[in-house]
Design brief:
The complex is a heterodimer.
Chain A: H1 2-7, H2 11-59, E1 68-74, E2 79-88, E3 94-101, E4 109-114
Antiparallel strand pairs in A: 1-2, 2-3, 3-4
Chain B: H1 2-7, H2 11-64, E1 70-71, E2 74-75, E3 77-81, E4 84-92, E5 100-110, E6 113-119, E7 127-134, E8 139-146, E9 160-167, E10 173-178
Antiparallel strand pairs in B: 1-2, 3-4, 4-5, 5-6, 6-7, 8-9, 9-10
The chains are: A alpha+beta, B alpha+beta.
Chain lengths: 116, 182
């Protein structure tokens, strides 16, 4: 019995080790794919931010503005839908513009607009 | 019977182990080849994003540091046509940070390739032309708003106060920049 253990592995030992190895490899795959995907998301988010800020800059040129509405724009990746909210500030000549991308509640961009 | 077992695995055991390990290894190989493709795609996209962000900040910086008025008998900031934008801007002197030099910058679009030419302050014929980004789409410069302040008595001298860059033909992507700090 002792000789058997010293000479090699049993089939169960081999299967268990292969299973462990495959779990380890697949977890490495999951982690690395998640990291790669998050890198892509970060770069896309940054580019979309540039387009959102450009939109707000153009919005300031309008003579008439709505207090709340939904609009969309194109970025390199896809069409982005967002909400615009214009609100008053303590200074009656300055308005606050807030842009909220749809389905991204944690992201919002603000700028100020002078009514002069 | 005991002696036989002590020597090694049976043929069936080896076949089972090899078949299981080959299935696992081939699925792992498939997964990791996918990740390699994903990595290449993401790297290309990220590099493109970095290039685009660099282009955005460079032109934004040129426009926000631009100087209004007439310089060398021509308008300081003007759109020659939808492919050419000329900006005279202030730039920090490399030797003395307290001194600012005035330089001429020309942004030029050539079938989606955007070049930036920086002319020397002392010698206008000396220039440095660089390809900033190849967008690979139709690009055009557009004046969004005219600066109402007059810098010249000449009627057709128009200074922009907001400039846009339109990218694409159907799904137009627009970048907008304020000219100067006003």
């Amino acid at each position: 019995m002792n000789n058997k253990i010293q000479n090699g592995f049993t089939i169960i030992e081999v299967i268990v080790s292969i299973t462990f190895f495959s779990i380890l490899a697949s977890s490495i795959y999951l982690i690395s794919s998640f990291l790669i995907a998050s890198n892509k998301i970060v770069s896309e988010d940054y580019i979309s931010e540039l387009f959102y800020r450009s939109y707000m800059e153009r919005y300031k040129l309008k003579d008439n503005y709505k207090s709340k509405f939904e609009d969309s724009l194109y970025t390199f990746s896809n069409k982005k839908i967002f909400k615009i909210e214009v609100s008053k500030t303590p200074n009656s000549n300055i308005l606050l513009i807030r842009l909220n991308p749809k389905n991204e509640p944690e992201r919002n961009f603000t700028t100020y607009m002078s009514k002069f | 019977m005991i002696k036989k077992r002590l020597k090694g695995f049976s043929l069936i055991e080896i076949i089972v182990v090899i078949s299981i390990s080959s299935i696992i290894l081939s699925s792992l190989f498939y997964l990791f080849s996918n990740i390699n493709i994903l990595n290449k795609f993401t790297t290309a996209k990220t590099e493109k994003s970095i290039e685009f962000a660099y282009f955005y900040h460079l032109i934004r910086n040129d426009l926000s540091n631009s100087v209004p008025g007439i310089i060398n008998n021509e308008n300081s900031i003007y759109l020659k046509d939808q492919n050419n934008l000329v900006i005279n801007r202030l730039i920090l002197n490399n030797k003395n940070p307290n001194i600012k030099n005035l330089i001429k910058i020309k942004w030029h679009n050539e079938n989606g390739k955007i070049f930036r030419t920086q002319y020397s302050f002392a010698n206008i014929s000396e220039r440095n032309r660089k390809l900033i980004i190849d967008i690979n789409e139709q690009v055009s410069f557009k004046m969004e708003k005219i600066n109402e302040q007059r810098f010249s008595n000449v009627e057709d001298v128009i200074t922009p106060s907001v400039i846009s860059i339109e990218i694409g033909k159907n799904k137009i992507k627009t970048l907008t920049f304020k000219v100067g700090n006003s």
